[in-house]
Fold this sequence. Notes:
The chain has helices at about 5-20, 35-50, 50-55, 60-65, 70-75, 85-90, 95-110, 115-125, 135-145, 150-155, 160-180, 185-200, 200-220, 225-230, 235-250, 265-275, 280-290, 300-305, 315-320, 325-335, 345, 355-365, 375-380, 385-400, 405-410, 420-430, 435, 445-455, 460-470. By secondary structure, the protein is mainly alpha-helical. The chain has a domain at about 405-474. Helix 12 packs parallel to helix 14 (about 225-230) and helix 20 runs parallel beside helix 22. The longest helix is centred in the N-terminal third of the chain and has 19 residues, at about 5-20.
Amino acid sequence: xxxxxxxxxxxxxxxxxxxxxxxxxxxxxxxxxxxxxxxxxxxxxxxxxxxxxxxxxxxxxxxxxxxxxxxxxxxxxxxxxxxxxxxxxxxxxxxxxxxxxxxxxxxxxxxxxxxxxxxxxxxxxxxxxxxxxxxxxxxxxxxxxxxxxxxxxxxxxxxxxxxxxxxxxxxxxxxxxxxxxxxxxxxxxxxxxxxxxxxxxxxxxxxxxxxxxxxxxxxxxxxxxxxxxxxxxxxxxxxxxxxxxxxxxxxxxxxxxxxxxxxxxxxxxxxxxxxxxxxxxxxxxxxxxxxxxxxxxxxxxxxxxxxxxxxxxxxxxxxxxxxxxxxxxxxxxxxxxxxxxxxxxxxxxxxxxxxxxxxxxxxxxxxxxxxxxxxxxxxxxxxxxxxxxxxxxxxxxxxxxxxxxxxxxxxxxxxxxxxxxxxxxxxxxxxxxxxxxxxxxxxxxxxxxxxxxxxxxxxxxxxxxxxxxxxxxx
Length: 474
């Protein structure tokens, strides 16, 4: 559960407690502006309390969430019941409650479709996962399809609620596909491209992009130039890759070379395809990007490595001395892509001032048999080193395994770096303590001492179990 969902859930539970304790007395809204997770938590919290506590509450919301189904059903007949709780009652386990709630919700939707759709669609989407939640979801989807192109659907396109935004995109795309048969054209394509380019959610971006590609493919005169440019500026890699793919059909394949150094590997792959289809050479273009004065970037270096062979390793090795840290990190990653491991070159880069370089070196050397010695790694894990160097060295220690890694993990349980502490605790808990006795690197006495020093990483039962497995008492 994400942080926002946790906050909403806690907000709903706190509101339920306030209703039961009388702290929420009055006629004001109990959860103003709350999201769907807050309302479902509010309902669940109220219905989990003993009946006598809900009977003591004087708020109508308590009656709508009462443990007694007859009281919930009666509360639905009150004037202006809370719409969110009406929607929740539409998925109630009691058939009589469901039937009445569904009539009330249908009336609410008919009376003010715009307000109901904007307010309740995120909640109805969550309720649609429940056993009895399909009815409300079908009702709202039908209303949104009937209002395609209207203000409700347009507002949901920019909703902060991700499932609601995805639903709105699917319905809008269906409407555009239906209109295509009647002659949808450049304006529709530009709008789809604009929506795709502005989207930060990959799934929603893909919905808009697929629709734009389908409409562009159906266009007799080729894709609209403005729409292609819009896609090329998208946030999501899939959107930009679609724009690169359309360059060839738009007669602009020569522009694809610009995207060989895109930050996304997907976009770079599409650019290589487009360049080759136009008779160009991606290798030559990407090499020029990394050898030209001031042209090298981390993405350009990766783009070159994706086209290069092992004979190009010297060029990448030379780039590990580049003044820009991101380029040095890209060169290290490029050497790994070429399956070229040079421990003598890479080990000193563990001390690089750029964290991205140290991470790339650790990832590269983790897959190499020629890792730095344990003593040199233990020295780099020491508190005098920068945090990113210590994390990279500890990653290599864990990849090497054995007692040095366990000893270092126990030491790091009290480290000042929260990230290292968490990783060390995970390592200690996952360690096969019993097997360590059979490696010849240690004995039961040392293992017992390390376990007791690691006590905070375990509960009492887990600690005792591990001690018994190595032949020691608690």
